UniProtKB/TrEMBL annotation, chains A, B, C:
Rieske domain residues: 11-112
Provenance organism: Virgisporangium aliadipatigenens
The keyword Metal-binding is assigned to this record: yes
InterPro entries linked: Cholesterol_7-desaturase, Rieske_2Fe-2S, Rieske_2Fe-2S_sf, VanA_C_cat
PANTHER family in the record: 3-KETOSTEROID-9-ALPHA-MONOOXYGENASE, OXYGENASE COMPONENT, IRON-SULFUR DOMAIN CONTAINING PROTEIN
UniProt-recorded name of the protein: Oxidoreductase subunit alpha
SUPFAM superfamilies membership: Bet v1-like, ISP domain
Gene3D superfamilies named in the record: Naphthalene 1,2-dioxygenase Alpha Subunit, Chain A, domain 1, Rieske [2Fe-2S] iron-sulphur domain
Amino acid sequence: MMSTGFIRDQWYVAAHAHEVGEDLLARTVLGEPIVLYRTADGTPVGLADRCVHRRFPLSLSQRVDDRIVCGYHGFTYDRTGACVAVPGQRRIPRTARVPAYPVVERDSLVWVWIGEPDRADPAAIPRAPWLDAPGWTTVRGLEPLAARYGLLVDNLLDLSHETYLHAGYIGTPEVAETPITTEVDDDARVVHVRRRMKDVACPPFYARSTGITGRIDRWQDIEFHPPCLYLLHARIAPTGVEPAPDGTDPHAFHAEIVYAITPETQTSTHDFWLVARDFATDDAEVSRFLAESNRTVVLQDVAALNALERVIAAEPPGFQELSINIDTGGLAARRLLNAMASEASGAGPLPDGRSG
Amino acid sequence: MMSTGFIRDQWYVAAHAHEVGEDLLARTVLGEPIVLYRTADGTPVGLADRCVHRRFPLSLSQRVDDRIVCGYHGFTYDRTGACVAVPGQRRIPRTARVPAYPVVERDSLVWVWIGEPDRADPAAIPRAPWLDAPGWTTVRGLEPLAARYGLLVDNLLDLSHETYLHAGYIGTPEVAETPITTEVDDDARVVHVRRRMKDVACPPFYARSTGITGRIDRWQDIEFHPPCLYLLHARIAPTGVEPAPDGTDPHAFHAEIVYAITPETQTSTHDFWLVARDFATDDAEVSRFLAESNRTVVLQDVAALNALERVIAAEPPGFQELSINIDTGGLAARRLLNAMASEASGAGPLPDGRSG
Amino acid sequence: MMSTGFIRDQWYVAAHAHEVGEDLLARTVLGEPIVLYRTADGTPVGLADRCVHRRFPLSLSQRVDDRIVCGYHGFTYDRTGACVAVPGQRRIPRTARVPAYPVVERDSLVWVWIGEPDRADPAAIPRAPWLDAPGWTTVRGLEPLAARYGLLVDNLLDLSHETYLHAGYIGTPEVAETPITTEVDDDARVVHVRRRMKDVACPPFYARSTGITGRIDRWQDIEFHPPCLYLLHARIAPTGVEPAPDGTDPHAFHAEIVYAITPETQTSTHDFWLVARDFATDDAEVSRFLAESNRTVVLQDVAALNALERVIAAEPPGFQELSINIDTGGLAARRLLNAMASEASGAGPLPDGRSG
């Protein structure tokens, strides 16, 4: 069975920025229940979602100004997690405090640090600037996945599956046929997988959004920043159109397809997805089409990965996967993830030398 | 994680009296499946709900006169649990018998003894005479709770939660604000928690049932007879109305709110509730209102406690609750329950020194 | 608790023949997920339902000619389980192969061998020739049972339960009242249980299908070929009608009621049922009636056995069944099954000396 270990001491995406507002939002990350909200000054806050008194979920409680009043007995917490009122008495126990999580809003995503708070460095959060940059338009969603984290990492690092699982949407025969190149930056801890297709069919996802009717050159440049952020730099252009010598590329269409892969429990995952584009940026119909199409593609992945999780749950121990060239990206990701697991606080290398 | 040990050698409420009749009733108490019915002479009977032959539930079988004929192969049991007929042969195996539980009907409740039958003493059953006494009218119900027994004990021993969980029904701010006094009778094994509120708002539950429009004096005198019977002696009167020197109290309104807390499995509980009153005893509209209101309040508790059970199921070991003054009643109850657990047949003290 | 061990190195019915066709059929047998289909030349094929690459179920994949193309990344398997194509490269790893199961179609049933393929001998498959023989008409079905295999074996070997569980359909009081004779052929490994009823009531199942209006002689001759095939040779005739001295029996009605009992998981079972008859063979209304009636009877069994499985799941260890004369067939079956379990590859005798 695949390992289900968590990698702590890392930043994970807990929410799209727009999900965190006045209401209390419950979200479990790496098995830790968190309540998220935004204070009156706009700052996102994340507190442990369990009252110190009798465990009641704060997310089921009342927000009063920037405080949370527990819905069971009224224990009241400020934005730092400190308890500032208890029922029936004036003295507040010194230890009455729920843990506060380091939370950072960046590039339209809300990141939370799971691990030792002292080790949280916001500068370590990988960036995806297109998601809220001028000149780009983004559509997004979040699908619940009833499968372990590693299955989605495998899925995204090997896009040959587009040909089989996403035919008619984003897959064409050439994706599976075209070899990839894989590079690992062990210092920066990034996995790069590149597939450059020349003179190939344009899948409906891009044909309808860009208006291209003929054959295309299609680039899929993956950049995976484990454990959470996955960037797919997609370039679509009519066949033969090349970037200019100065690096600008005005005659191509660019999409930045971003996934944030956040473990919820050991066998479930938050599958955040975003599609940013630099074309037709004011065209609501293109936005609607891309949102609907990408959600369909994500749900195809969800159905497949949920099936894999059921296979794993039912199988006896000892199954050995067989890997081929298309898996070099996924295997590299596992190697990096395993190294990160062995460094994290309170965790050694995973028993089977894997991280997913 | 909270302990989930059962306390055997005790009486537990298995049913409201009206639930036990001609039909076979299945009910699990402390993990033991029991079939209940009432014989032609009106006596309630409780037998183990599992045929000795191939385990078929007797509660899914046929009642013929005062006997049960197993619905699978026809093994027939009398009211004592003795097998009196088997299919295909005249000889009945000597050991063919299902256990019969000591069962006592008292105060409109059907109590069952879980433990060594020889130790069952009906005199040890705590009383709640108002439930079927002249001059009183009672409404009642039973809600299934998907949470462990101890969470409901905690809930009922600390009524400060009325302010937060039952606002608009039975809670007002003064409940949480008013200090309690707690007394434990270690010999009789009763926990008393008293809250006496003077000149406070009248919650809708009492305003509409009593007709009082102004401010009230409100008493909440809890009497918990562990493990099962919880009595809340509630007194409501216009502010300043006192009992007479002779102890009579003709100008106040009295409600006897009774809960029977019966573990079903280690993580589910039968939440029996009853509200007896000495006012408007013939007023069907008041009965309807109190039944509906109290059921709503119980369902608010059920939702909260089910949420706590889910929190406990998902959390790693080691959570330490933080207790304050309002918890003295609940902590006293735990202490008594733990003492009872250590005395019961076949059970030592619970590993974490708790009983809930 | 009853043992839930599997008996490997045996043939099991995986499907009715008509279920296996052009489409890919997923079926789990003894915990092993299998994909079944029929090649263009009509041969049934069974392969392990898990791609060697990343575990995707082949049953959720595409069939192309006689091959299966994995729906996730396109690994392609021929009817022998050999991988004949992988994406993105020409070299196919030597070990790329999914296990192929020995599969035999016989008497309108598709049998699969679970165990060491080298030990699979089609001659060992027990026969039920009436199921597709001239002069016979068969109705059939398959019901999922959420209960362990042994509970259905017990059920079918002791038909006294017809009186209680199937009254009004196939049961009459005389079934439970009439003694049985049990014989075990330890060499051929067959359990025989015979019940010969004379001058008894005709249950609706036979009255309406045969047209008999009076009393009958009714034979129930069971032949159980463990682990999977159960034959009930049923003979119905007006009271006093005997077979001719030469063994022919032209004035009686014969039904061959067949069950195939195939473990799906340790606590679920495929309950295949078939009713073949030598009367009214062209009467569609009789076929419809027998199909509907037998399905009702099977669903009554399913409800009862599912209840037993829930009893077993909830009970503490140590329950001892009590057996009487009616159980001699079931106990004999358990003894044979236990002997078979101890011989099978990789399995010793079951810990509790039982097999069911």
